[in-house]
Amino acid sequence: MKPSAISRLQFLRLGTAGVAAAAAAPSVVSTDAVAAAAAVKKKAGPVCESGGCCITQSGDFYNVERGNPLPYKLPPEKQREIGMVRETWRLEIIADPESNSKIGRPLLKADGTALTFDRLMEIARTRATSYFKVITCNNISDPLGHGLWEGVPLRDVLWLAGPVENLRHVYYYGHHNEDPKQIFKCYLPVNRVFEDPPGELPVLLCYKLNGEFLTGERGGPVRMIVPEAYGFKSVKWLQRLAFTNVHQSDDTYASGNNDINSWLKTFARFAALPEQIKADEPLAIHGNAQVGVSGLAKVQYWLRKTGDPLPVNDPHFSKAPWQDAQIAPFDPDAIRGFDPAKLHPVQFDPKTGQPREWPLRYTLCRWTGQPRPLAPGTYELRCRTIDQGGHAQPMPRPFPKSGKNQIQTVKLEVTA
């Protein structure tokens, strides 16, 4: 079972398995959680059945959300009032009043200088860029969705505020129903915002997904996109940015014992596989792989008959007889219809229009295994990745609070 419209807090309490159990044990969880579990079936999610680049339609992303009520579900007149539509959206940029940061031109709603969506579009005429990125919650085992995000580099907007000195971090948050307890705040080092290391993508003020303006459900009118980070850094419904001189990140998410500086990890997951097949029916093995900061060299799978011995003293099954899967090649149809001039040159060669490597870091790709007949019995299937450094999943970071990347196990029964 995959996550859908369920709150981040519910996910932390239930876990992925708990969401699946919600429908089976409604007396244990809230009716909202049960409805969320049932709603999973209505979304296609990030799994793709063809091509190599798994683009998720906006409405098919699984949701991990905060807000009571969710701002995009408010009545239209209230959405206009709080800036949840493009015509009334405003972004403030300030200096943290609790630090000694200095900026020359704060952008404020009170004096009419806050950034409007029209002004953002003016900047976008010359500065817009787009790139593929997967969105994954670090506390959930499966990606939420993958697409082409378009926006303006955050630094281009921050310069409008005239940053001067004593600037170590930028923090930001979105609409929070005017309730301080609902603020979800994240920090980024100023160095990361203003200067991209070679081969890295910029942090975006994002307003489009797959060529369409962001819906409220996807975080619109404007959200943050941090390419190398887990989803919590890509805050939705953005409303305020602040320069601060504090030396440490103080993300809201840190209070949940989360590694708030974790990069995306590389890992493989199965697509939907049958729980039972007949012995004369070949098993088609396939799935998706998230490509983290360490890249992706291989996807592998292992089919084990229940009862066969497991490797001794080998918790990550490094000595098991893994087989190489095939990583689906990039499909040019994935970018057909998008403006090639906006595709970021870190991902795509401007001259050829082709990806500089495949799979691309921070994206989702498709893989397939060789179909094979099986004798009657019960089996376990596992899949894993090998990154470009030669590390087999879940290494080199098997720690769950920096992103779940455990080796997935699926059970299969083969009948005569």
List keywords for this structure.
416 residues, alpha+beta, Sulfite Oxidase, Chain A, domain 2, Immunoglobulin-like, 3 domains, five-stranded mixed beta sheet, five-stranded antiparallel beta sheet, 6 helices, 12% helix, 26% strand, elongated
Outline the secondary-structure elements.
Elements: E1 6-7, H1 8-22, H2 31-39, E2 64-65, H3 76-82, E3 90-95, E4 102-103, E5 115-116, H4 117-127, E6 129-135, E7 145-153, H5 154-158, E8 163-165, E9 169-174, E10 186-189, H6 190-194, E11 204-209, E12 212-213, E13 223-225, E14 238-244, E15 267-270, E16 276-278, E17 286-290, E18 298-305, E19 323-324, E20 326-327, E21 364-368, E22 377-386, E23 408-415
Give the averaged pLDDT, no decimals: 89
The level-1 CATH class of the largest domain: Alpha Beta
Distance between the termini: 28 Å
Sheet with the most strands? 5 strands, mixed
Q: Which overall shape is indicated by the principal axes computed on the Cα atoms?
A: elongated
Low-confidence stretches: 1-41
Number of continuous helical runs = 6
Give the spatial strand order of the biggest sheet: 5-3-14-9-10
Which range does the strand content fall in?
25-35%
**Helix/strand-derived class?**
alpha+beta
CATH topology of the largest domain: Sulfite Oxidase, Chain A, domain 2
Count structural domains. 3
Helical coverage, percent range: 10-25%
Radius of gyration: 22 Å
Order of helices and strands: EHHEHEEEHEEHEEEHEEEEEEEEEEEEE
What is the CATH architecture term of the largest domain?
Answer: Alpha-Beta Complex
| CATH homologous superfamily grouping of the largest domain | Oxidoreductase, molybdopterin-binding domain
Query: Total strand count, please?
Result: 23
